[in-house]
Fold this sequence. Notes:
Layout: H1 25-36, H2 43-58, H3 60-78, H4 83-101, H5 117-129, H6 135-148, H7 154-172, H8 185-189, H9 191-204, H10 209-225, H11 230-244, H12 252-266, H13 271-290, H14 297-310, H15 315-328, H16 332-352, H17 370-392
Helix pairs in contact: 1-2, 1-3, 2-3, 2-4, 3-5, 5-6, 5-7, 7-9, 7-10, 9-11, 10-12, 11-13, 12-13, 12-14, 13-15, 14-15, 14-16, 15-16, 15-17, 16-17
Amino acid sequence: MSRIFIKQVPKLVRQHLPRVPALNANAVVEAMEDAAGMNEQDKHVEQFVTHCASRALALLPDLRVTGIIRALFAYKKADVDSKNFVEEVCKQKVAKFLLEECGTGGMYESFLDSCTANDILLLYKAFAVNNYFNLELYTLCMGLIATQIPHMTTADCNIFFQTHVKYISAYYERQFITVNGKVTMDRICSHPLATQITLRFLEQRTGTPEDIVLFSQWLVEMADTYGLSGELCDRMASFYLRLSQRPVIFNVDHIHRLIQSTCKVHASLSIAYRGAAVTLIESLLQEAERRSDVHTAKDAINTLYSLYDVKLWRFELLSGLLYTAVNNVDSKSKITVLQAFVDSLLANVKSLQTEHVDMLIPFTLELCPPAVASLRLHEIRDRLEERGRYLSK
C-alpha cells in the first residue's frame, strides 16, 4: 500500500478497502497511520481504519512490538467512534496476546525479549492513551520496565513519568480491569520502581530543557503521591543547584513552568534542602529579567501566585512579572491576591532592597534602592486599585 492517503479526500479512501485483506504487517500499520493522519475524517476513513485494525489483529505476531505500538497510537489518533470494537476486540485481543501467547510457555514466548526500554515504555503509554487499564497487562509492563531502568535515557524516564500519572489517576477513578488479583494502591503506584526511575533521571545529568521541565513537573506528582525521601531530597538539591548555574538554556515558557513546579515542591522538601530550590528560582527570575523576556498575563499571574508561598520578595527579580500582571489582570479575585503580594513586598522592602544581595549565584541586575522600590510598588498598588474600580463598573 503506497503512503498516499494524507493528500486524498476521505471519500476516496473507500476505494482501498478491498486491498486491506491482502496487506502485510508493515503495510497495514502504515495504512492506519496515513488514514489517521488525514486532515479530514468521515465515515469512510473510520470504516477503513476499523478494517485495518481487524487485519492488524490477525497479524499480531508479525507486527512485532513496534508495530503494535504504532497501530495503537494510530487507532487513538483516528478516534474511531466505536467503543464496542475498541474495548472488546482491539485492546483486549492485543492484551490477551501479550499476556498469554507471549508469556512463559506460550507460542511466542520470546516475542518481548528483543524490546528496548523505549519499546516497553511506549507500549505502556499506548494502552494508557487508549484508556485501557488492565491490571495483568500493567503488571507485565512494570516488570519489563524494571529490567530496563539502567538503559533509560532522560526522554525515556519522562515517558514513564507522564504515563504513570495516568495510571494512578485511573486507579482513583476505578478504571482498572482485573481478572486475577486485587487492584491496590501499592500495586499501582509501584513506589520503589517510581523512585528508581526518578533517581535514574537525576544521575544522568543530561537532558534537553524540555526534558528538565517535564521532570520538574513529575517531582510535584512524586512529592504528592509518595513523599520525598532523604536520598531523593539530597539528589534534588544537587539538581537544582546545577541548573541554577545555567538558566540561559531555558526559554520564557520553560522558566515559568520550572518556577511553578519548583515552588510546589519547595514545601515538600526537608528544610535543609529548600535553599537549593530557592536558588534555582532566583536564578531563573534573574535570567528572565536580564533578557527582558516578554511574559503572557496568564504566566505572570500564575508564577506570582506560586512565588507567594516561597516568600521571595526581592523587587529586581519580580518587576517584569508584576508590571505584566498588573496591566492585564482581569478579575477582582486576582487583584486581591496581587495586592496581598505587593503588600508583602512593601513590608520587606527596607530589609531586602540593600546593596548586599544574599544569593548563592552572582547578582547581575541593576540594584534598586529601597526608596525607589517602595515608590514603584506603591505605583503598582495604585494601578491595582484603579483596575479594581474599573472592573467593578
